[in-house]
């Protein structure tokens, strides 16, 4: 707590109660956080200068302490108020720019030895615990802590921006047209590349010039040309599994009437 002893010795003659000693300690912690005191009261006065010392009249009221602070870089101002309620001090620290307020209630007797108000070595107790409370609940973060927090935020933003958008379940996908895969053209240097579907009909290639309505060579139910066609082909005329394009109606009974059976009335045209 370098500097606290010097501050305490400067104001020890004016410390008359435990609240004064606690205000002195809190003031020094604010100074360590990168701020200096401007003066007392809610409104600024003419000729104010930033100082690490407590201003004149800082403990004029034992019921309400009011101190104003400004950061070393002049970018922010704070208003500190401390209310005495029985044996406690209620601290309020407001950022005058953002109007953000932090508060802390401290039991004075837990951290100040009232019997040794004039002795620096004995007046403060449980200081480590008090510092933790002040930093976690009341005081603004020190410059180093702010820089570390800013760097962590930047790293978090970078990680968020560099994430794989395709694997984000919460991201609404872009309305882009679906990707069209190029056709699977055969290698032009491969055998049967040109006309391969006709030269190798069982190679699994689509297309070709041979019409095969019965899909010869593939399992199917129903008509089997290898068993023969009554009145047209005897059994065995078509080898099993051979490609076969029927040259007539399949089966004995042709389904439905054929337009050639009965021409429209009033037409005597053999080509109808």
TrEMBL record:
GO terms for molecular function: endopeptidase inhibitor activity; proteasome binding. Residues 183-249 form the PI31 proteasome regulator C-terminal domain. Keywords: Acetylation, Cytoplasm, Endoplasmic reticulum, Methylation, Phosphoprotein, Proteasome. It is found in: Cytoplasm; Endoplasmic reticulum. Residues 175-189 have a biased composition (Pro residues). Residues 12-141 form the PI31 proteasome regulator N-terminal domain. InterPro entries: PI31-like, PI31_Prot_C, PI31_Prot_N. Coiled coil: none annotated. Residues 141-161 have a biased composition (Basic and acidic residues). One of its GO terms (biological process) is proteasome-mediated ubiquitin-dependent protein catabolic process. One of its GO terms (cellular component) is endoplasmic reticulum. Residues 141-192, 226-272 are annotated as: Disordered. Belongs to the proteasome inhibitor PI31 family. PANTHER family: PROTEASOME INHIBITOR (PTHR13266), PROTEASOME INHIBITOR PI31 SUBUNIT (PTHR13266:SF1). Plays an important role in control of proteasome function. Inhibits the hydrolysis of protein and peptide substrates by the 20S proteasome. Also inhibits the activation of the proteasome by the proteasome regulatory proteins PA700 and PA28. This is Proteasome inhibitor PI31 subunit. It comes from Triplophysa rosa. The lineage of its organism: Eukaryota, Metazoa, Chordata, Craniata, Vertebrata.
